[in-house]
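Tokens in:
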């Protein structure tokens, strides 16, 4: 058989015919034809040239599997991981309203800052204090409302990885966010508007900040996992791989040797430069040593982690087979926790 197209098709029987794989097959067919033409020019028969080209090709099944796997991952991400799959028109409208409130407050506060003349106000304020009191007074309601709205919408939003939180619990989170935001805006407003001291401004913050933080702490400490089964499985696979990286003694030994060499050189450079140009600038050697050490650490981590990340990707894709599209938390079936 000297039909290169039929030969290439036979190599990929059983693999998902995806875009990347089809492009690779087309390129492979062209390369085989070029090799056969080159062999014929050298005096080989087409059959002999074809046999030689096949021998040089090697085993490409692993590459085919990789391309097919990547296509499945891309399809899964496009179909299930996009937030659009979980957002109704009403929820989008709610996000837009919250964003509009926040934007309106910020724009109005900027207008107040640049147009307010503190001398025309019926309060004893001067210049900057008058402007800042106007800014925080404008922001007070809008920041509070936006913080509560975004918190509630975010927690009651189903995603590919998270189930929906109960609305009652999300309302408590929103209340905590609103109290905290209100306190943080009211405190500087009190400081600038009344001319009080810093302690009085902090005293204004505490009645709102402490209850908000207390509610938030209680909610966080009693929170249950909202991860869907497939996402929980992927997270455990990632944790397992990171632990293996953390206990990579060979990588740790290499990093220790490199780090020691870098800092010995840095101390030597510090002394040498201090004697030559003065200690006023020689400390920069420690800055460069820190930067070099971070680069080395990043390079070693990447080298040790490439294989791990590939395995995590495979584990995540396998977990995806029982994920959003298979009845374990589909795109339109939120589960209350």
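Residues out:
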């Amino acid at each position: 058989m000297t039909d290169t197209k039929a030969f290439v098709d036979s190599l990929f029987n059983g693999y998902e015919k995806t875009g990347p794989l089809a492009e690779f097959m087309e390129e492979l067919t062209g390369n085989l034809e070029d090799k056969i033409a080159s062999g014929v020019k050298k005096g080989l028969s087409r059959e002999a040239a074809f046999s030689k080209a096949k021998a040089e090709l090697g085993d490409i099944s692993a590459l085919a599997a990789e391309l097919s796997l990547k296509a499945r991952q891309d399809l899964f991400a496009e179909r299930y991981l996009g937030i659009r799959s979980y957002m109704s028109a009403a929820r989008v409208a709610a996000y837009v309203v919250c964003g509009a409130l926040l934007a309106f407050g910020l724009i109005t506060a900027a207008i107040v800052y640049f147009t307010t003349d503190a001398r025309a106000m019926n309060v004893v304020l001067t210049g900057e204090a008058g402007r800042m009191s106007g800014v925080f007074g404008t922001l007070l309601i809008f920041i509070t409302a936006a913080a509560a709205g975004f918190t509630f919408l975010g927690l009651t939003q189903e995603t590919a990885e998270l189930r929906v939180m109960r609305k009652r619990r999300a309302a408590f989170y929103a209340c905590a966010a609103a109290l905290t935001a209100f306190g943080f805006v009211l405190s500087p407003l009190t400081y600038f508007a009344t001319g009080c001291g810093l302690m009085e401004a902090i005293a204004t913050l505490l009645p709102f900040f402490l209850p908000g933080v207390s509610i938030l702490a209680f909610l966080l400490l009693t929170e249950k996992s909202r991860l869907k089964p497939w996402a929980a499985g992927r997270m455990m696979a990632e944790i397992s791989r990171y632990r293996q990286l953390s206990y990579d003694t060979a990588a740790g030994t290499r990093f220790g040797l490199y780090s020691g060499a870098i800092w010995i050189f840095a101390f030597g450079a510090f002394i040498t430069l201090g004697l030559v140009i003065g200690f006023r600038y020689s400390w920069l050697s420690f800055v460069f040593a820190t930067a070099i050490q971070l680069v080395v650490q990043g390079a070693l981590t990447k080298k040790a982690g490439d294989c791990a990340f590939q395995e995590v990707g495979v584990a995540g894709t396998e977990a995806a087979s029982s994920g959003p599209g298979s009845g374990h938390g589909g795109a339109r079936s939120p589960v209350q926790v």
